[in-house]
Amino acid sequence: MTSLLESRFSRASSGAFQPERVLRTARLVSGLVLFTFVTMHLVNLSLNLISIRTADAGLEWLMEPWQTVPGTILLYGAAAIHVVLVLRTLYLKRTLKMPAREAAQILLGLLIPLLIAEHVIGVRVYGSMTGTVIDYEFVVRALWIDTPLVGVKQVAALLVIWAHGCLGLHFWLRYRDWYPAAAPYLLIGAVLVPVFGLLGFADAGKVVEGLAPAVRPAGLTIDRIREALATKDILLNTAYLITLVSVALTLLLRSLRQKRERRNQIEVRYESGEIVRVPMGSSVLEASRAGGIPHYSICGGRGRCSTCRVRVIAGEESLPAPGAIEAATLARIHASPDVRLACQLRPVGDVTVLPLLAAVHERTVPSGIRAATPGREREIAVLFCDIRGFTALADHRLPYDIVFLLNRYFAIVGRAVEQSGGRLDKFIGDGAMALFGLETSAPEACRQALNASAAILADLERLSGELAGEIPSPLKVAIGIHSGPAIVGAMGYGGVMNVTAIGDTVNIASRLESVAKEFNAAIVVSDKAVDLSGLDLSGFDTIEISIRGSARPLHVRVVPQDAMFQNGFPTVRSETAA
Fold first, then answer.
1. Average pLDDT in the chain
2. 347 in the same domain as 238
3. How many whole angstroms separate alpha carbon 43 and alpha carbon 90?
4. Exposed/middle/buried for 235, CB within 10 Å: 0-12, 13-18, 19+?
5. Number of other CB atoms surrounding residue 391 within 10 Å
6. Looking at the structure, do residues 223 and 305 belong to the same domain, yes or no?
7. In this structure, what CATH number is given to the domain that contains residue 441?
8. Do 330 and 406 have their domain in common?
9. Residue 434: which of 405, 462, 412 has the closest Cα?
10. Same domain, 214 and 300
């Protein structure tokens, strides 16, 4: 299956020009250029908290590079590319029904040129036409004293641009492994940078109020000033007009395209029974939104997160081959050939699909698990634990006794998992499944899983001692531990929603628990989990086991029932101890 996906990806990307990937890169790079400019501008403003002279000195390093020819081309080019690509996104949308965060990104992207045009054009045109030195005293006097309303507009513009940039960075970075740990610090920076910048602007305004009125430079006539201001107004109105006409033209062309496409519609059917008719060329995600059908899309339809994926039930013959972006994401999650990304799949005929992640109301998810991201691939450790010989133990005993025993056992497992830093996933009969690494690294997750297994065995031994007169033999468990990639998400229906994991890693961990029973062992842990944990388990036997669906055997370590534990981890029993 993996080889099929990899070949599918290679066909989609081998030597072919990939316009979507190029455009996505252009949008990202242009956004980063604009965000860098705004960040440097705010940092320069914050230098006014020291003094206006310090802020003027900072202009040489922070702002003057943007006024050179290469800097000007880079800045204006980035702004033009970013706006054009926002308009392209608006044009390509088959429906304007979208999550609020996507609508906010598009709206803010279109507002930015309108908000910054007055300041950028005013400063550059006035300075070049009048020969005036544009320093912080001049700018602050103009915005704080002469035209305070314009100053308020520029403050609003900075905040809007900053918010737009921070949202874009968040959506770009949030699936990086390091991002969850760095997010709190980045949030602090996202708050402090504009706060210090605006405080610097306000402080400079109070300083300028106490200075003598500005003296007009020699040779600068009133007529020249009026000419510069008139030119500024013409250019500013032109910028406003171009932006508004561009938006209107985009919406008009989109409307004309929709009328043309309505003549050739397809049906997107859902296994639950809903049918949505959309123009050919619409994505399955757009069909879901047009039909009001809940559908996850954490990345906003960019093909990054895979949470919108669907299984194609019928109509495979009408499906185009995956593009490079879709194929790469499908290969990353080891998807089967009948799984596609709804945001990238644009059928050319009728199709029936099944969304694989249930987009039910998030309020039905227990409050303690809201932090988990639906459908996110993570490197985790999975632990399966099961009582050995439970059926024989339950024979000829009252149900109340069995309930009491199971509750004591469940409490031992749950406490061991939670105290070790894991999350108890579910109980299945007399078995349990636990996840480690949802908020930590994979090596730490493996150490936590081994620590939890040691705690389970120790507490179960104490429980057996307490119940020695009530049970025929000491309680024993079989534990399987494996580490690898898994899809972690809130799955279920209605009020029965839980964060769980699916994938080969979970299946292998379950298989290792069965192997532990077969070998009468306490723990069977894969070599991968052992290597990641950094623990020395070389003293325990290594065996090879076969895994269904895998051509290669899996190497595992077998920890026997009589193993010793030190600091919560299994250690080889010494001859003296024996």
1. 81
2. no
3. 33
4. middle
5. 9
6. no
7. 3.30.70.1230
8. no
9. 412
10. no
- The reply to whether 3 falls in a domain is no
Q: What is the largest CA-CA distance in the chain?
A: 109
Q: Which of 430, 351, 437, 424 is nearest to 386 (CA)?
A: 430
104-114 per-position pLDDT tens digit: 777 777 777 67
Whether residues 200 and 329 fall in one domain:
no
Rounded Cα–Cα distance for residues 184 and 112 (Å): 27
Q: In terms of domains, do 290 and 409 share one?
A: no
Q: For 119-133, what is the mean pLDDT?
A: 77
How large is the C-alpha radius of gyration of the chain? Answer: 31
Strands (E), 248-297: 265-270, 275-279
Whether 32 and 346 have beta carbons less than 8 Å apart is answered as: no
Of the residues 207, 235, 257, which one is the last residue of a structural domain?
Answer: 257
**Residue 170 in domain:** yes
The two three-digit tokens of residue 133, written as one number: 């030195």
Residue 145 has pLDDT above 50, yes or no: yes
| Domain membership of residue 138 as a residue range | 27-257
Task: Please count the structural domains in the chain.
Answer: 3
What is the reported pTM? 0.54
Residues 75-100 have pLDDT tens digits of 888 888 888 888 888 887 767 777 67
Looking at the fold, whether 166 and 230 belong to one and the same domain comes out as yes
Token pair 């932090």 is found at 371
Of 326, 355, 384, which residue is a domain's last? 355
Chain center to CA of 458: 39
Pair of tokens at residue 446: 């493996």
Dump pLDDT digits (tens) for 269-319.
998 788 998 888 888 998 888 888 888 777 767 777 777 889 899 888 878
Q: What would the pLDDT profile of 443-500 be if each residue is shown by its tens digit?
A: 999 999 999 999 999 898 888 888 776 677 788 899 999 999 888 877 766 566 677 8
Given a contact cutoff of 8 angstroms between Cβ atoms, the answer to whether 55 and 204 are in contact is yes
What are the tokens at 433? Answer: 């499944």
